[in-house]
Amino acid sequence: MNLVTISCVDPTIGLTNRAKYFAIVTGSIDLDTHAIYLRWAHRGRYEAPDQVRLIAEHFREWRPIGIGIEETFWQVSLIQDLRRFHPDVITFPINRRKQGNADTGARAMGLAARYEQGRIFHPDRVDARGNDTGVDAWLTPFEDELLAFTGQKGRDDYTDQVSAWTDVVDALSALAAPYAARQREPVYSSFGWDVTAPADIAVGA
Q1: pTM of this prediction?
Q2: Beta strands 36-44 and 120-121: pairing type?
Q3: Residue 202 counted as domain residue
Q4: Widest CA span of the chain, in angstroms?
Q5: What is the domain range of residue 176?
Q6: Which pairing describes strands 67-70 and 91-94: parallel, antiparallel, or unpaired?
Q7: pLDDT for the residue numbered 72
Q8: Cys-Cys with 27: which of 56, 112, 143, 168 at CB 3.0–4.6 Å?
Q9: Is 184 among the domain residues?
Q10: What is the pLDDT of residues 78-121, one digit of tens each?
């Protein structure tokens, strides 16, 4: 496999039971086959400083080529805090309004199409020997939210992980397209660790 990994964040502020969740989702794409793999997902309710810390910790554990964060409203300060206090963390902006595709339901249509085409894979809960792989604790809530998602305003309780996952899949697909056009030319030279916002994956830029 020739895997490249990207994470995306759907940040929010609020700690009450009615508040939306902060969500971070990680996926990888095989640049040779264009198969997309869900690697990890998490949601929770955190204050802004804790979100900064969690994103930095996630980056150092998973080492994605970048973490996408929506660049609107207060989320801009989240990106600024990451750059100030965790300069090793590579982020890239997601501007859905500039894309003209801010609605999660509309964006999820492309996600659904890729599932129908058999291009997206989730991790197995047990390995070939029947041993628990330890993914069920996060995978079940993720799949529950995904399967319950309708895309209709006012009908979905939570869409945070779905939103972040659509951003991941869109970014991975955008990354793979120029790679295929270059006929398997190595791409890592375009994504040095000193780059703040890799141009090839600046979604909506």
Answers
A1: 0.79
A2: parallel
A3: no
A4: 50
A5: 3-190
A6: parallel
A7: 72
A8: 168
A9: yes
A10: 889 999 999 999 998 887 655 545 566 677 788 888 999 999 99
Take residue 162 and report the two structure tokens written for it: 């779905």
CA distance 193 to 177: 21
Q: Which of 3, 45, 21, 24 is nearest to 168 (CA)?
A: 24
52 touches 82 (CB < 8 A):
yes
Tokens for 205?
Answer: 């830029």
Q: Are strands 22-30 and 67-70 parallel, antiparallel or unpaired?
A: unpaired
pLDDT tens, 121-159? 999 998 889 999 999 999 999 999 998 887 666 665 667
Give the number of residues written for the chain. 205
- Do residues 26 and 6 lie in contact, with contact meaning Cβ atoms separated by under 8 Å? yes
Tokens 């690697």 sit on residue: 39
More confident residue, 154 or 172: 172
Question: 163: domain CATH number?
Answer: 3.30.420.240
| 116's tokens | 């129908």
